[in-house]
Amino acid sequence: MENFLLGSGFAVIIALLSWSDRIKDLQRETHEIESEFAKERKTTLRKIRAIFSQQQEISLLERIDLLTSLFKRSSPETEIKITVEVVTSFQKLAKMWEKLENYLQWKFKLVVYIGYYLIISGSIAFFIPNQNHINLFGKQLLFDFLFVIPLILFSLFLLSFLLFINGKESAYRKELTETMEKF
Question: What are phi and psi of 139, to 5 degrees?
């Protein structure tokens, strides 16, 4: 059991080292929609993300200027109405983006915590003498279950969280696509 836990822990750490950007990032489909959005408006993703991000040091007036510059100008009468619609749409997208960004960070943290748990529990199991195990139906139980049951629960939580994030990202893609079509 300790070999399984330690081996799995080191495998998770190696996966984190090689795929950390992919774990913390959006799906390819979302990137393609965002890139298409930026390309159609002859701007960069960085400018669009600056509008979304609350952490950027951009004033509200600068955000509104950036927003209105992304969309085609119309007659002066309808420009104010369109500006209000654009700001409303982007406020919704900004809130969705901020939450999604937070969820992606938590996804990464949860994978790190699983790696820690596997390595720590494997190390502890390595030092527990075999006499402390209960032999039931020819299998060693108790201490093995003490390590495996939390891992199973933690893994089920992570899988549920991944499905939740996928749903949130799909909603973000849908809203972004609708915004692209509307303006």
Answer: -120, 145
Using pLDDT thresholds of 50, 70 and 90, give the confidence band for residue 164: very high
* pLDDT, average across residues 124-135: 68
- Number of domains the chain is built from: 1
Residue with the two structure tokens 């701007």? 43
CA 142 vs CA 11, 54, 98, 129, 131: distances in Å: 25, 49, 43, 13, 11
The answer to whether the beta carbons of residues 101 and 180 sit under 8 Å apart is: no
- Cα separation, 41 vs 12, whole angstroms: 40
pLDDT for residue 170 is more than 80: yes
Instruction: Give the helix/strand (H/E) hosting 134.
Output: strand 134-136
Is 56:50 a contact under the CB 8 Å cutoff? yes
Give the pair of three-digit tokens for residue 96: 């969705």
Q: Average pLDDT in the 105-115 region?
A: 87
Q: Under 8 Å CB-to-CB from 175, ≥6 apart: which residues?
A: 89, 92, 93, 96
- Note down the domain range covering 73: 2-182
